[in-house]
Design a protein that fits this description.
This protein has 280 residues and is an alpha+beta fold. It is built from eight helices and 15 strands.
Length: 280
């Protein structure tokens, strides 16, 4: 069962207690309203389009991981009250940014995202394993163009975010492994259909995945991942990964390890590539 604490709903929060309870029980929630004002969202979309246009040759658009490490402009949205007010009623007022990722499936040949738990790829990186992802739709996200599917309540199952995995074809999938079929079969699959500037939230231990995009419509989302600042990163992770204090106070006595949102960490990204470090 999830161990996230319960926090009192405050006037600035964007979720009510019923929605928080649903998230805790189901492991995900589709947010009921637009995340940003139209102009602010359009600036984010334009910023993404500019990044996509200069993507290095051979690099897949599904793999635009931790772009904020070298692009401080993204903190306008990552630290925005509109986002933090969505997750504060779930993880509390002391919030750190754990990661972000543009996952863009081009029309026609967008790769499948195998069934997985985010926590599987973060095993050993932080304790406790309590991450809330805001999945913000840049494009429409539908069954036709490969929207995310979730398996409700699987964040509370026996494996607790660490199921058994098997290899898959890396030329057709975003990741190289997938949860083995018997582990995922007993659970229903629910599509997360979103309009641009709408979002879903999901627990890092929840089973989810998405089909290949063979349609003529691109599907892009920006995942923004947050933890309570009391979560502690292991020593190896601190060498190759920065978290950022987004709101409130440090609760993990690791202030010296927070990244500076005004700095572009190109050397860190170079080191990550050398070590073969892929985030999610």
């Amino acid at each position: 069962m999830t161990t996230l604490a319960r926090y009192d709903i405050q006037p600035h929060h964007r979720l009510d207690q019923t929605q928080v309870d649903r998230y805790m029980d189901e492991g995900y929630l589709i947010c009921p309203e637009r995340v940003f004002a139209d102009e602010k969202f359009e600036r984010l979309k334009s910023h993404f389009e500019a990044k996509l246009a200069v993507l290095p040759e051979g690099e897949r658009p599904e793999a635009m991981d931790v772009p904020h490490f070298t692009d401080p402009a993204l903190f306008e949205w990552l630290f925005a009250d509109e986002v933090l007010d969505l997750i504060e009623p779930i993880i509390g007022p002391d919030i750190a940014l754990f990661a972000s990722h543009f996952i863009c499936k081009p029309k026609g040949d967008g790769r499948k995202v195998p069934w997985h738990e985010d926590s599987f790829y973060w095993k050993g990186m932080l304790d406790p394993m309590e991450v809330v992802t805001v999945w913000l739709a840049i494009d429409p996200s539908t069954e036709e163009n490969g929207c995310m599917f979730v398996k409700p309540k699987t964040h509370r199952k026996a494996h607790k975010g660490f199921s058994h995995y098997e290899p898959v074809d890396e030329t057709r999938n975003v990741f190289t492994t997938e949860i083995v079929d018997p582990d995922r079969k007993p659970y229903e699959e629910v599509p997360v259909i979103l309009e641009p500037n709408h979002a879903s939230l999901h627990d890092g231990r929840l089973m989810h995945g998405s089909a290949a995009n063979t349609s003529n419509i691109r599907r892009c989302g920006y995942t923004m991942r947050y933890i309570n600042s009391g979560c502690v990163l292991d020593a190896e992770t601190r060498e190759l990964h920065h978290i950022y204090l987004a709101r409130g106070k440090d609760r993990g006595n690791q202030a010296q390890n927070y990244g500076d949102p005004t700095v572009a960490y190109h050397d860190l990204m170079k080191l990550r590539r050398q070590r073969g470090r892929r985030g999610h």
